[in-house]
Amino acid sequence: MWIPKWARDKKKGIDSPMPTQVVSNEEFIPRPQSKKQKQVEHLIQTRSEESAKRLGMDRRAFCASTMGLATCFWASNQVFGNYWDVDEAETLEPGAYEEKWPKSQYFIIDVQSHFTNGYAIGFRNMQVFKNQEFVKNMGFNLEDTPEAYAFPNFVKEMFFDSETSMLVISGVPGKERHVDRKGNPVEGPQRFGGVLPSWLMSMRKKDINEMAGSTRALCQGNCAPNHYWDKESNAPDRAALFEQIEREYEMYGIDSWKWYCHTDPGRSGDGFRLDDEKLAYPFYEKSKELGLKIFSVHKGFSYQSRTLGHLANPEDVEKAALDHPDLTFVIYHSAMQHAPVMPGWEDSWDPETGDFAWHDVLMRIKERNPEMNNVYPEIGSSFGALAVDNPEACQHLIGKNIKYYGADHVVWGTDCLWWGSPQWVIDAFKRFQISDEMCDKFGYSKLSEEDKAKIFGLNAAKIYGIDPDERRTNIPTDELEKLKTAYIEQGGQRTNAAYGWVRDDTRVS
């Protein structure tokens, strides 16, 4: 039985600022918590209780603090080895974190974020929010239910509870319908379009930016080459397809496309390849004509698609990128075939070489084509999952991405809210470094502060045409930041709830 991680933790009395096992974003089947993860979880619990008592704090408040988060990395080091840069003083002194890791250090753009129906955290009942128009106009009833907290919880977790400066609301594959059963044109919710349709992402992007009074959110479009299909001719319905492309760009104001080659919302009977000249290339040309040249593509993590999963292999990136040098391809998950503890993980990576299945395909593409400059590996879920499960493998992932593509082509994303607030992942990357031994053995490079700044946000800023200096100037005075300040001043804190799925180990057999 699957269960949301927050529900599992609540049942077991666990309050960890960092997920203590790999969670599923519904793109793979959860596996049981590993022995080492159980050890880390136990250490976090016992150390947090001891430290909270020593400091005269409530344990929940301690776990929501920077000291609680530092305790997680201290515990990971005790179990896995000394992989994370954490001083023991950070686990007991509130000011030690701020002194070592100043919050203004990085401009952070999260290019892979999703909202989800998660745990109702009650922040809307705080006085600071009761009279805010953005809360009243979210489009949800204000009952204390998980459904009511989908988008408001997203705003809280992504902006108020983390250092994220800007984000891209990322798509989930789905086809919008143009007309109802009577043939009448439809708008808004009547267009359907799956879990997170383009019209909804567009609406929420506008909500966030209007709330802030500045640009804090971008959004993606879900339309893809096989979404509108003429079954009689067994070919794309180009009229419907181009109508949707134009709608998403002109009406929704999307900032990039999000493609899943291994899905079939249009019921074409197949997925598609990025280098398919008959299916994908006409879409590219139409998108170029409109001026939209960014394609974010899910690659890897396709265990749930037994019939089309092979199309999540990045082998099709090479020809598409070389044939279209004026397009930008952001490859989500860095194309890792399997997340840690997924079925097949043991056979999908080689500890001797540090190679991951399918990720190695993406690396070889760049090795063969050093002049190719329009492909960017993104690290959402891949970095976070490895940080939780195998910090050594984590060094291989980042080491190889930088070795082959360069620090100026690796892009920050987290796949949150599946992992809860992204602050723990941000913290992990701040504390991350590649060991001297790994650098010597595999030809990796140490990460400089400049490298981390590029990966955290400057690379995405370049892709999306954002001026980071202008944003840094505007963000501290926008309305969203004022709300965040009020939230913190009134005692707001992270809930440490992860919304992805895990195996239910709370039942007594």
Your description of this structure?
It contains 21 helices and 13 strands. The chain is α/β, with parallel strands linked by helices and 509 residues long. It folds into two domains: 2-102, no CATH class; 109-486, Metal-dependent hydrolases (TIM Barrel, Alpha-Beta Barrel). The chain has a seven-stranded parallel beta sheet with strand order 2-3-4-7-8-9-12, with helices on both faces. It has a two-stranded antiparallel ribbon with strand order 1-13.
Q: Could you provide a short overview of the structure?
A:
This protein is an alpha/beta fold. The chain contains 21 helices and 13 strands. It has two domains: 101 residues, no CATH class; 378 residues, TIM Barrel.
Layout of strands and helices, then pairs:
Layout: E1 2-4, H1 5-12, H2 35-55, H3 59-63, H4 66-80, H5 94-100, E2 109-113, H6 127-130, H7 133-136, H8 150-160, E3 166-169, H9 198-212, E4 217-221, E5 229-230, E6 235-236, H10 238-251, E7 256-260, H11 280-290, E8 294-298, H12 317-323, E9 328-332, H13 345-348, E10 349-350, E11 355-356, H14 359-368, E12 375-377, H15 382-389, H16 391-405, H17 423-431, H18 436-442, H19 449-464, H20 468-474, H21 479-489, E13 501-503
Parallel strand pairs: 2-3, 3-4, 4-7, 7-8, 8-9, 9-12
Antiparallel strand pairs: 1-13, 5-6, 10-11
The second-level CATH architecture of the largest domain is Alpha-Beta Barrel
Strand order of the largest sheet: 2-3-4-7-8-9-12
Parts with pLDDT < 50 across at least 5 consecutive residues: 117-149
Number of domains: 2
